[in-house]
Write a structure and sequence with these properties.
- There is one protein chain.
- This protein is of the alpha+beta class.
- It has three domains: 96 residues, Hypothetical protein yqbg (Orthogonal Bundle), CATH 1.10.3230; 88 residues, no CATH class; 78 residues, Elongation Factor Tu (Ef-tu), domain 3 (Beta Barrel).
- The chain is built from five helices and 21 strands.
- The strands form six sheets. It has a six-stranded antiparallel barrel with strand order 4-5-8-7-6-9. Strands 10-3-16-15-13 form a five-stranded mixed β-sheet.
- A hairpin with a 6-residue loop joins strand 11 and strand 12.
- Helix 1 crosses helix 2, helix 1 packs across helix 4 and helix 2 crosses helix 4.
- The protein is flat and about 85 Å long.
């Protein structure tokens, strides 16, 4: 497995492929920052296209009974927190960068729950806030979250943005051994709007309507669940948020070329350069390579081997015995 490169490595390669800089030249801070913004926008756009999504993920959440709708969205799950010399350290997987304004909630000690505080330092596994208070020893947290300020903490926290789409969903009966999966029917907005009794209570929902609102998506389970079973969702894997130039870029085979060439194409007009046909062709080939892997033919079936039934009121030929059959 190859070692991950940094976002700056990829951005530098894109500038070279576009012919904006030559090999050996060092990108200025402004050019690097502009390239990082372009890269983040590119990956954000790709998250909305299934052909650019390399896999699906199965996420499990514990249902909150008697809540409709349940929300799902990006939040950092805090596993522990401490406060030393007016610097609070939160252990959580995150994509925050210095200057981001966040809220924290659910920590055991009230002083660690804050609103509208700027991040003063961050890595992929922790972030820090400046809080003037007495020292607090490291404490384990359960259910504590950090979100961008003004965003309501979701019922279900995801490491990246809320799912663009839900492919499949199951209720998992976790009170029996082995666990049993009960498939949910995925419904649309018209079905939910036509539901005359949306709040019928039941231990076991049968249907799910997902509204991909922003920044938190909304999950409408019907009947409304009264038991805290597990909810399993199959969702597209989002491409990672790029928080800084040192952030590791680590994706499956083919994505490095596809992202590099596409980023190079998008940089050309910003720097007043004509898109080189060779670069455009390379980008098309690289994108086709990953999209081919992500594009599968749907499973289909017919009434007979290869021949669907139905004659629309006309005679039809029975290929099995060579006779012509009149409509009934």
């Amino acid at each position: 497995m190859p070692s991950p490169i940094t976002a700056l490595d990829l951005i530098t390669d894109a500038f070279l492929e576009a012919g904006i800089f030559a090999a050996g030249e060092t990108l200025s801070a402004d050019d690097s920052a502009f390239g990082l913004g372009k890269l983040s926008r590119l990956l954000d756009a790709w998250d909305a296209e299934k052909l650019n999504t390399f896999a699906s993920a199965f996420l499990n959440f514990t249902i909150v009974p008697n809540v409709q709708p349940l929300t799902i969205g990006q939040a950092a799950e805090i596993t522990s927190a401490s406060l030393t010399s007016n610097v609070a350290t939160y252990i959580a997987k995150n994509s925050y960068k210095v200057g981001d304004v966040v809220d924290t909630s659910g920590c055991q000690t009230a002083a660690l729950n804050v609103t509208g505080y700027q991040v003063i330092a961050a890595t992929a596994t922790q972030f820090q806030l400046a809080i003037i208070n007495a020292n607090i020893a490291s404490e384990s947290e359960s259910g504590a979250l950090a979100v961008y300020t003004t965003i309501t903490p979701p019922n279900f926290a995801t490491a990246t943005q809320r799912p663009a789409r839900i492919e499949n969903a199951n209720i998992i009966l976790n009170n029996v051994t082995p666990h049993v999966k009960c498939a949910l029917r995925l419904r649309d907005a018209d079905w939910w709007a036509a539901n005359s009794v949306p709040q019928v209570p039941s231990a076991l929902p049968t249907d799910l309507y997902y509204s991909p609102e922003w920044p938190n998506g909304k999950l409408f389970l019907w009947p409304e669940p009264t038991t805290n079973y597990l909810l399993e969702l199959e969702v597209w894997i989002n491409l990672a948020d790029i928080a800084s130039l040192t952030y590791p870029f680590f994706l499956p085979q083919g994505y490095r070329d596809a992202v590099t060439y596409t980023l190079a194409e998008s940089l050309c007009p910003s720097y007043g350069r004509q898109l080189d046909p060779t670069l455009a062709a390379a980008g098309q080939r690289a994108r086709a390579a990953i999209r081919k892997l992500n594009s599968a033919s749907p499973t289909i079936s017919t009434a007979d081997p290869g021949i669907p039934r139905g004659n629309r009121g006309r005679n039809y030929f029975n290929w099995l015995n060579g006779t012509t059959i009149a409509p009934r």
